[in-house]
Design brief:
Layout: E1 17-18, E2 21-27, H1 35-45, E3 62-67, H2 70-77, E4 87-93, H3 101-114, E5 119-124, E6 143-149, H4 157-175, E7 185-190, E8 193-198, H5 205-208, H6 210-213, E9 221-226, E10 229-230, E11 245-249, H7 254-267, H8 280-293, H9 299-306, H10 319-331, E12 339-344, E13 348-353, E14 362-366, E15 369-373, E16 386-391, E17 397-401, E18 406-409, H11 410-418, H12 423-430, E19 431-433, H13 457-463, H14 468-481, E20 509-511, E21 534-536, E22 549-552, H15 559-567, E23 573-577, E24 579-580, H16 587-611, E25 614-619, E26 628-629, H17 632-645, E27 652-658, H18 664-672, E28 677-680, H19 681-691, H20 695-716, H21 722-725, E29 731-733, H22 741-746, H23 759-775, E30 796-798, E31 805-807
Parallel strand pairs: 19-22, 23-25, 25-27, 27-28
Antiparallel strand pairs: 1-10, 2-9, 2-15, 3-8, 3-9, 4-6, 4-7, 5-6, 11-12, 12-13, 13-17, 14-15, 14-16, 17-18, 20-29, 21-22, 24-26, 30-31
Length: 809
C-alpha cells in the first residue's frame, strides 16, 4: 500500500468492498451485430438495484467490455481494409487537471511509438449528457481514444499483444506515480476489446456513450458490471469491467495476495505499480493480466488456477484434474472469498464461481446466444428460442471459445486443461506428503530435539509467559476433551495494555471478521469446501534450490511430525534459535538486545532463503537462565516482512516451534502473521505431564480442538483454506502503539487509531517474565505449577505478577 493510500482518520481505503451485478452475452456464431448491444442494454436495465446510487442519484459505477467492432472502426479510420487482429484501441481517462491533458497524450503516444505502434486516429469518445441526471455530469471523466495499427514486425497476434502490453506498462509507470497526473488511467489498451465505464447507473451506460448506440457499432460479445460500492467513495476508474474481467464479491485474501505478489515481483527484480485506491477487483485483473501476458498462461488456465474449486475434498474429480489442481496449489496464491467472475479477451468469454458459490450466476442459451448473468430473465428471449437454462454451481464455470466455435462446461473444460500437461508427473516431482516420508524408528521418537538448557520444566512454563489461566482455561480442557472450554459471554480481564498479568504479544491482537456483504462461512456445514492442507518448502519457479514441498494435512504439527520433517531429505531445513540474552536492571539495554536479536534472526533466515530456501524452524526450545524466549508473534511478523521486502518470502516456509503457544488464538496469530505451521512445544510438555503414556493422544485432542477453532476463525473471515489465512494478517491491534518506530517495522500493515503499548514496554515485559521464571523454586511453590493430582489443597492468595496462586504449604 502506498503512502497516499494509507488511513486518513478512521477511514481506511484498504477496507473498500463492493457487491455488484455482472454478466455476459455472446453470439455463438461470432458474427458482429448491433443486436448484441441492444440485448446487453436490456440486461443492464434489469439490474439497476444491483448498483449503488448516491442520494443525488449518481451511480456508483457501471460499464461494459466489448470486442472491437470491425465495421465501426473501418468507418472511423476511413480504412476499409482494416483487419481484425491488425489494429488496436486504447481508451483513457485523462488527468483531473486539464493542464496535464497534453502531457498525458504525449506519454501515450511516446509509449505507442516506442513499441512501433503507428497511431491511426485520436478522438474524444462522444457522450450524451442528456442521458444521465444533470447532477451526475460533473462526476464523469472524459475518455480519449487512440486507434493504432499493428507494426509489420509483429507477425502474430501474440507478438502484437506483447507490444501493446509493454506500452501499457510504460504508461502506467508514469500515470500511477506522478501526483500531477492524478486521474490519468487506462481503461483498456488492446487489439481485442475496449472498455466503456464511468460513474453511471447500469441503465445509463449505452445511452451515455454515443458510440454504443450507433447502428454501425457491431459486436459479437459484451460483458458488463454494475457496482454497489459499499462504505466506499466511488470513483470512475474503479468502476468495472477492467481489462480482462468483471467481479462481484469481496476477495478476503486481497491484502495477502498483494504482499505475495510484491514478493514475487521483487524476486524477479521488478515492481508492481498500482493505481491509487486500487480495489480488490482491480488488483485481481492486474494479476490476471500478468499471468496471461508475462507467465504465458492461457486465460482459462489463469482464471482456474487463481481461483480453484474445492478440489481437496471432491472425490468426483478425476485423478488428472486433482493432480492439476494440487500442482497449481504448490505455486499459486489463491484468491479466496466470495466471487462471481466474468472474464473475456475478445475470443473467449466466460463466467466462473468461487469454491463456495456465494454469488449467483444464471445461464441461458438460445439458438443464437449464450448468456450468463447475476439474475435470471435479464433478457426476454422468446421462450421457443431457449434451448436450456441453468446456473453455475460452486467452483464451476461456463465459457464460450469463438476460435473453437463452442461452449465448454466445468467438467469438460477441466479435463481439457488437465490433458494439456502431464500433471501427475509434475506433481510427483514437486511434492511429497508428510505421511509418505520415512517413519522414524521407535527408539528415536522421544523428542524432536533433546533440551540442552538449565531450567526445570515448571520454570520453562513461566519463561514462556504462562500463568494459571494458560492451563485452567486453555491447555487442560483442550487436552482432556478435544474442545475449547466454554465460558459465559463477556470478558472481565483488565485492558491488556494496563495489565502485566498475561504474557506474550498475541493478546494485543483480535481477529477480524468478514465485512459488509460478505457472510461468514459455516465451518461445519461448509467443511467440504474448506481445508487445512499446507505445503511446506520453497515454491517452484521462484529461483530457490529445486526440492519437493512437503504437504501436511494440518498446520498444527505433532512431535512425530517434527521428527519426520527433521529427518527428511526432500527439502532443505534449518533450525534457528528464537532466543536472546536479557539485560535485567537496564531497560534500554534490554530493549536494544531484544531488537538486535530479532534483527539477527531475520538476517540468518534471509541468508538461508537466499542460499537455499526450504523450511526454517524457529524455536525457543532451549530457553535457559541466560537465554530468554523472543516474543513469538513479533518474530514471525518480522521474518515475514523481511522476506517480503527482500523478495524471498515464497522461498521459505516458517515453522514456529514454541513453548509460548497455549491456545487456538496463539496458533491463529502465528499463522496469520506468517508461520506456515506451528508445533506447540508447551502443550506437548503439559500433555506429558498430565497424561504420561497417553501424551500423544492428549496432544491430538488439543490439535483437534485447535483445528476446529482455526476452521471457525477462517470461516469468520470468509476464507476456505489455511494457506489463504497464512500471512494474511487478519487482525486488529488492541492498545498497541503501531506508530512506535520498531513496531511499525514489524507490523507495517496493521494500524490502530488508538495508541497503546510500545516496543520498550514489550521488551521489559519479556525480561520480567524471564526473571520471574528464574525465581520459581519448585513445583509446589505455586499452585498454577502443581501438576500432581495428589498435591495438597490449601488456601490461596493472589500475587501481583504473574497470575499464579501461592500455596500456603
Amino acid at each position: 500500500m502506498s503512502a497516499q493510500d494509507r488511513v486518513t482518520g478512521l477511514y481506511d481505503i484498504s477496507e473498500d468492498k463492493s457487491s455488484c451485478g455482472v454478466g455476459f452475452i455472446t453470439r455463438k456464431d461470432g458474427v458482429q451485430t448491433h443486436d448484441v448491444l441492444k440485448r446487453g442494454h436490456e440486461a443492464l436495465c434489469a439490474v439497476p438495484h444491483r448498483g449503488g446510487m448516491s442520494a443525488e442519484g449518481v451511480g456508483d459505477g457501471a460499464g461494459i467490455s466489448v470486442d472491437l467492432s470491425l465495421s465501426f472502426f473501418r468507418g472511423l479510420t476511413s480504412k476499409p481494409d482494416l483487419a481484425t487482429g491488425r489494429f488496436g484501441v486504447g481508451n483513457f481517462f485523462l488527468p483531473n487537471n486539464p493542464s496535464q491533458h497534453q502531457r498525458a497524450a504525449d506519454i501515450i503516444e511516446a509509449a505507442l511509438a516506442d513499441e512501433g505502434l503507428p497511431v491511426l486516429l485520436v478522438r474524444d469518445v462522444p457522450v450524451d449528457n442528456d442521458a444521465i441526471r444533470p447532477i451526475a455530469v460533473r462526476y464523469q471523466l472524459p475518455i480519449r481514444q487512440w486507434v493504432f495499427a499493428a507494426p509489420e514486425a509483429a507477425k502474430t497476434p501474440a507478438e502484437f499483444d506483447w507490444r501493446i502490453h509493454k506500452a501499457l506498462l510504460a504508461i502506467e509507470a508514469v500515470a500511477y506515480t506522478d501526483p500531477a497526473l492524478a486521474g490519468f488511467y487506462p481503461l483498456s489498451l488492446s487489439a481485442r476489446t475496449q472498455v466503456f465505464k464511468g460513474r453511471l447507473s447500469s441503465n445509463e451506460v449505452l445511452p451515455y456513450f454515443r458510440d454504443l448506440v450507433d447502428p454501425a457499432h457491431e459486436i459479437h460479445t459484451m460483458y458488463f458490471h454494475t457496482r454497489f460500492s459499499t462504505n466506499t467513495d466511488p470513483h470512475p476508474s474503479m468502476a468495472q469491467p477492467f481489462r480482462l474481467m468483471a467481479h462481484n464479491g469481496e476477495l478476503n485474501t486481497d491484502k495477502k495476495n498483494r504482499l505475495s505478489e510484491t514478493a514475487i515481483a521483487l524476486a524477479r527484480n521488478s515492481a508492481i505499480i498500482r493505481p491509487k485506491g486500487q480495489s480488490d477487483s482491480c488488483r485481481l485483473d492486474q494479476t490476471l493480466q500478468s499471468r496471461v501476458m508475462e507467465d504465458g498462461l492461457d486465460l482459462v488456465t489463469a482464471v482456474v488456477s487463481m481461483m480453484p474449486p474445492a478440489w481437496e475434498n471432491d472425490e468426483t474429480l478425476s485423478e488428472d484434474v486433482r493432480a492439476m489442481f494440487e500442482y497449481f496449489s504448490l505455486y499459486e496464491e489463491k484468491n479466496d472469498g466470495p466471487a462471481a467472475l466474468i472474464f473475456g479477451n475478445g475470443t473467449i468469454v466466460g463466467a466462473r464461481l468461487d469454491r463456495l458459490g456465494l454469488r449467483p450466476l444464471r445461464t441461458v442459451e438460445t439458438s443464437d446466444y449464450l448468456c450468463v448473468m447475476s439474475e435470471a430473465g435479464q433478457i426476454a428471449f422468446p421462450p421457443e428460442t431457449v434451448l436450456r437454462r441453468g446456473r453455475i454451481e460452486a467452483g464451476g464455470m461456463l465459457y464460450f471459445d469463438h476460435a473453437a466455435g463452442r461452449s465448454f462446461s466445468t467438467s469438460e473444460a477441466l479435463e481439457m486443461l488437465a490433458a494439456q500437461r502431464d500433471y501427475k508427473t509434475l506433481l510427483t516431482d514437486a511434492r511429497i506428503r508428510l505421511e509418505d516420508l520415512p517413519e522414524v524408528p521407535a527408539d528415536q521418537q522421544g523428542s524432536p530435539l533433546r533440551y540442552n538448557g538449565d531450567l526445570e520444566r515448571h520454570q520453562r512454563y513461566v519463561a514462556y509467559s504462562h500463568n494459571q489461566e494458560s492451563f485452567k482455561f486453555l491447555m487442560d480442557p483442550m487436552l482432556a476433551t478435544g474442545a475449547e472450554k466454554i465460558s459465559a459471554m463477556g470478558y472481565g480481564n483488565a485492558i491488556n495494555a494496563l495489565s502485566d498479568q498475561e504474557g506474550g504479544v498475541a493478546k494485543y491482537f483480535s481477529q477480524r471478521f468478514a465485512q459488509v456483504t460478505n457472510p461468514p462461512l459455516d465451518s461445519i456445514r461448509e467443511a467440504d469446501g474448506m481445508t487445512l492442507r499446507v505445503a511446506l518448502g520453497a515454491k517452484p519457479n521462484i529461483g530457490a534450490k529445486a526440492a519437493r514441498q512437503i504437504v501436511v494435512r494440518s498446520p498444527i504439527l505433532t512431535h512425530l511430525d517434527m521428527l519426520k520433517i527433521r529427518e527428511q531429505s526432500e527439502t532443505p531445513l534449518r533450525r534457528f534459535e528464537m532466543l536472546y540474552t536479557p539485560v535485567a536492571g537496564d531497560p534500554k539495554a534490554n530493549e536494544q538486545a531484544l531488537e538486535a536479536a530479532i534483527s539477527g534472526l531475520c538476517d540468518a533466515v534471509e541468508a538461508f532463503a537466499a542460499e537455499e530456501g526450504g523450511i526454517a524452524v524457529v524455536t525457543d526450545r532451549h530457553v535457559a537462565r541466560d537465554r530468554a524466549a523472543l516474543p513469538m508473534i513479533i518474530v514471525i511478523s518480522a521474518l515475514n516482512q523481511r522476506l517480503i521486502e527482500t523478495g524471498l518470502r515464497l522461498r521459505v516456509s516458517i515453522i514456529a516451534e514454541s513453548g509460548q503457544i497455549s491456545s487456538s488464538h496463539h496458533i491463529a496469530a502465528a499463522l496469520g502473521f506468517g508461520a506456515s505451521a506451528v508445533y506447540p512445544l508447551g502443550v506437548q510438555f503439559r500433555a506429558e505431564e498430565k497424561f504420561g503414556a497417553d501424551a500423544d493422544k492428549a496432544f491430538k485432542r488439543f490439535a483437534k480442538a485447535a483445528e476446529k477453532s482455526l476452521m471457525k476463525t477462517m470461516g469468520k473471515v470468509g476464507l476456505c483454506t489455511a494457506e489463504s489465512y497464512i500471512a494474511g494478517e487478519f487482525f486488529e491491534p488492541n492498545f498497541l502503539d503501531t506508530n512506535d518506530p520498531v513496531l511499525r517495522r514489524y507490523f507495517p500493515n496493521v494500524k490502530t487509531p488508538v495508541g497503546g503499548v510500545n516496543f520498550a514496554v514489550i521488551a521489559q515485559a519479556v525480561c520480567d517474565w524471564h526473571m520471574r521464571a528464574l525465581t520459581v523454586a519448585s513445583e509446589t511453590r505455586y499452585r498454577c505449577l502443581v501438576f500432581s493430582r495428589s498435591a495438597p489443597k490449601a488456601p490461596v492468595t493472589h500475587m501481583a505478577r504473574p497470575r499464579c496462586v501461592a500455596s500456603s504449604t
